[in-house]
Amino acid sequence: MTHLTHHSPGPARSHRRKISTVFGLSAVVALVLSGCSAADQADNNGGDNGDENQTVTMMTHDSFSVSEELLAQFEEESGYTVTTTAPGDAGAVVNQLILQQDSPTVDGFFGVENYSAQTLLDENFLQDYSGQLPESAQNLAVDGSDALVPIDHGQVCINADTEWFDDNDLELPETLDDLTDENYKDLLVTSDPNDSSPGLAFLVATRTEFGDDAEQYWEDLFDNGVKVAGGWSDAYYTDFSGSEGEGPYPLVVSYSSSPAAEEGRTTSIDGTCIQQIEYAGVLEDAENPEGAQAFIDFMLSEEFQTDIPEQMFMYPVDDSIELPDEWSEYASLTEDPIEPDLQEVADQREDWLNSWTETYEAQ
Fold first, then answer.
1. By three-state DSSP, how is residue 230 classified?
2. Global pTM value
3. What phi, psi does 329 have (nearest 5°)?
4. CB 156 within 8 A of CB 319
5. Which ranges does the record mark as transmembrane (predicted)?
6. pLDDT digit string, tens, across residues 276-324
7. Smallest Cα–Cα separation from 342: which of 118, 145, 140, 148?
């Protein structure tokens, strides 16, 4: 069985765990899925767990999280038993879905981000979603497709430990270009874009900003002492000075929502932000497509959307949901994020990753 933790690659430590302290939600626990469910618990107490045909199996990234009570309510009201499998981060989800497209072991999925979305759509094995999106979610949908359903969104940005910069009398960087300046030598940690969705988003941001000069930009970053951690969790919780690990790097690739978990000790840098959207969908050859559709309806419900900030530290796609107070103060979204061409990302993604890896290995 898999314990559900924070959004983005990284298992045990999480903004969600920190949120239990920040927002006083110690009673909200991430449900243990992948082979067990809220209905299993009900069954152990004499409830009816339903038959096999009522099971909905969803593939998620390894940080999908929902309040135990809320999921139990869905299972009771819908009659479905929910199980999940989590092969890794968003990239692992895409790879597994493509590998098993002719004989799927799941009914639906959650956690494919916008930089992998077109790659999945090009394989043409998804059903269209039959439900209704919140009006504010419609501009987050993939153009020309009803098969990918936006569930949450956020921005990947450089985060800065403002206390460190104040103590060292150094101005914060304002742009991606600033990060190659010698004033910021040995100050930035990022995560490997091959293994980390925020790392991939950062790579896409640099490709969008610098185009054909992106390889030179990364050479300059490496020459300026950027550290590449294996995943977001290591970068943020071990290497970054502004979180619990109190590491040596006061700049980190993370999320615009991350400063809310640090209660203002950190900030995100608007000029470096790029949008990230997470989608759900139903497989064409699913054994229980109705159940997967129902689960996506559930993820778009007011209750689940309200749960998202405190469980997965992302922003709900339904903008009528009131965010926690700390988000309003510390976790605002920039109005002018870097905007990549998603078709170009789909076409060039593997080449960009290969080029980045070659540049990294050659340093």
1. coil
2. 0.82
3. -85, -40
4. no
5. none
6. 999 999 999 999 999 999 999 999 999 999 999 999 999 999 999 999 9
7. 118
